[in-house]
Specification:
The structure holds two protein chains of two kinds. Chain A contains 15 helices and four strands. Chain A is mainly α. A two-stranded antiparallel sheet of chain A has the order 1-2. In chain A, β3 and β4 form a beta hairpin. By secondary structure, chain B is α+β, with helices and mostly antiparallel strands. Chain B contains five helices and five strands. In chain B, β2 and β3 form a beta hairpin. The longest helix of chain B has 20 residues. The radius of gyration of chain B is 28 Å and the shape is elongated. The chains are: A mainly alpha, B alpha+beta. The interface between A and B is medium-sized, with 17 and 19 residues.
Chain lengths: ~425, ~170
């Protein structure tokens, strides 16, 4: 009993860390990435003892500011729902993740533990059910604030949810028909196999049209550009969270990024093989753990030394620029890189001991989970990249796209998939 | 009724199927923004941003900054209180009170000479108008700050000893 509770808490802890670790990083990536895309430098002032890390310290300052800000509330609000809405949004963002596997299994002391919090057989239905609850938080927050702009934002969020939920479901149905399962772990496991012996059976390979529909619907569900009409500042101030301030606003703000992480995890779990490394299934990983670990440590160590040399070069160049604590930053970061590099290369000496004690199985688990996190990071970055590239759709364009184009395309995708499967079998 | 030979009707081209499917066009846009991103990541120091308080823009010698009053050899102001600058000033920010100069060779001198820096538009017409080269805007100071309005009204003593420290 105790073992089960500890296991569940360990998994939930990892999941929580993954999401809450990504959120400040994504806020940083949003600010710094948008700046670099627009030829600006972005945040680079906040720092701890001169260590600014290209602005990574800024989210800490942001959150501190929001925590200590006055909580201004509208007088005519619905008291309970106004306070409940941001909580609901955050709860939904966190609880969607529980069915997404972040690895195959981990072997500790001879026992195998699956790396998913709740391995539901109807996992995808759970995702669809819980994800649409997120719109309730937005709609309730907009309605409970008792303001025109928040109400308009809530209406738009509801409308886009109704329109795009259908496309989301239709796109996923094609996927279920191919993999024959609603369980995300079995979909992820299936994606590790190869078609014709060389093509990984990823969702994007077997369902290319379905993937485009899914990614459009997911962008609409997470309220990101080009479908950000529920919070468009040029039209309705800030949409549903106009009347929110202080920590309640922070919850809405962080929930947006948590939703992005979950959406990125869904995209990579369903369409990009989840934790599977293409052409390197788990048995191959375990069999070649020795050379792969050597290669990884060597590449990592050399990379760290290269980064360190760049930092030291910067330290020389920036000497005398600021005349304060900031000048120590490149030297300090360079030294940290050298320490990590030495540690990685030193681990080469310990390699037989590492593999002997922890086993090749553990290496395979870490490699797969690391690959999954890398995929999630890429798709989360794609959200930001797209936001700073394309303009938004107008409200009527969003509706037309959803109902007149994506919905028929989703149905057509289903028919094509069905015909193809019928022809194959 | 065409203007300079331009066609009256603006013709728009219809999007073809591939363009209206958006995905290819979005991918093209991603490439464009991605190029900017990578270029700025690799050449951070070539970005046009000036890190303002640490680095400052270098202005030309003709840049009009905060005013100063020039002095004669004996240290008294060159100004003869002729009111040419305050007459020329479009912002009406210079006020001079004239007094009789003890030296009979010089008719007048300014008893007070105040400039309201908040009203000044830094046009340089006072420099142009001055017959004695008594007022100049060549200090190069443009960071002018104070926490009250009164401090921006600067007097003769201040203008005579205007240096480049930037504070009022």
């Amino acid at each position: 009993m105790l073992a089960i509770i500890i296991e569940a808490f360990a998994k939930i802890g990892f999941m929580f860390l993954l999401i809450m670790g990504f959120v400040p990083l994504l806020i940083w990536a949003e600010r710094k990435g948008s700046a670099f895309i627009q030829d600006r430098t972005g945040p680079n002032r906040a720092g701890i003892l001169g260590i600014r890390l290209a602005g990574i310290v800024h989210p800490i300052a942001d959150v501190l500011k929001l925590v200590f800000k006055e909580d201004v509330v509208p007088a005519e609000r619905h008291r309970f729902l106004y306070a409940f809405a941001p909580m609901l949004v955050m709860i939904v963002a966190m609880s969607t993740y529980v069915v997404i596997p972040f690895g195959d299994y981990i072997e500790i002391a001879g026992k195998q533990y699956s790396l998913v919090v709740a391995d539901l057989q109807v996992g995808m239905l759970y995702v669809l059910a819980v994800a649409s609850l997120g719109t309730y938080g937005v709609a309730l927050g907009g309605w409970a604030s008792n303001s025109k702009y928040t109400f308009l934002g809530a209406l738009r969020a509801t409308a886009s949810m109704i329109s795009y939920e259908i496309t989301l479901g239709l796109a996923l149905m094609g996927l279920f028909m191919v993999y024959g399962s609603l369980q995300i772990t079995s979909i992820a496991a299936e994606q590790g196999t190869l078609i014709w012996g060389w093509l990984p059976k990823w969702g994007i390979v077997v369902q290319p049209l379905g993937f485009l529909l899914f990614i459009a619907a997911v962008y609409a569900e997470t309220n990101r550009t080009p479908f950000d009409m529920s919070e468009r500042d040029s039209e309705i101030v800030a949409g549903y969270h106009t009347e929110y301030s202080s920590l309640k606003f922070a919850l809405f703000f962080m929930a947006e990024y948590a939703h992005m992480v979950v959406a990125a995890a869904l995209i990579s779990a369903l369409y990009f093989g989840g934790y599977q490394i293409p052409w390197l299934p788990r048995p191959a990983l375990e069999a070649n753990a020795g050379p792969l670990l050597t290669g990884g440590l060597l590449v990592g160590g050399v990379l760290m030394f290269l980064i360190a040399s760049l930092y030291f070069r910067r330290a020389r160049r920036e000497k005398g620029w600021y005349n304060d604590a900031r000048e120590r930053e490149p030297g300090f970061l360079g030294s940290v890189c050298v320490v990590i590099g030495v540690a990685l290369l030193g681990a080469l000496v310990l390699k037989p001991w590492l593999l002997g004690h922890a086993g090749a199985s553990l290496f395979a688990t870490f490699a797969q989970t690391g690959f999954f996190v890398a995929k999630v990071a890429f798709f989360a970055w794609l959200f930001i990249w797209v936001r700073w590239t394309v303009p938004s759709f107008r409200y009527d364009q969003v509706m037309r796209l959803g109902w007149q184009i994506l919905l028929p395309a989703g149905l057509a995708n289903l028919v094509i998939t069905a015909l193809w499967l019928w022809a194959v079998h | 009724m065409s203007y300079k030979g331009l066609p009256e009707v603006v013709t728009t081209t219809r999007r073809n199927l591939l363009e209206s499917a958006y995905f290819v066009e979005i991918a093209k846009g991603l490439v464009v923004t991605g190029k900017h991103l990578v270029r700025n990541l690799l050449h951070t120091d070539e970005m046009p941003t000036i890190q303002y308080p640490d680095q400052k823009r270098v202005y030309g010698p003709r840049f009009r900054g905060r005013h100063r009053l020039t002095k004669r050899e004996d240290g008294s102001p060159r100004c003869v209180a002729c009111q040419m600058c305050s007459t020329a000033c479009p912002a009406d920010c210079i006020s001079i009170e004239a007094a009789e100069h003890p030296d009979p060779a010089i008719e007048k001198y300014p008893k007070t000479f105040t400039i309201d820096l908040l009203r000044c538009v830094y046009c340089g017409l006072c420099e142009e108008a001055c017959p004695c080269d008594a007022i100049r805007m060549d200090t190069g100071i443009y960071e002018i700050s104070a926490d009250n309005r009164e401090a921006f009204v600067v007097d003769k003593e201040f203008l005579l000893n205007n240096d480049k420290d930037g504070t009022l």
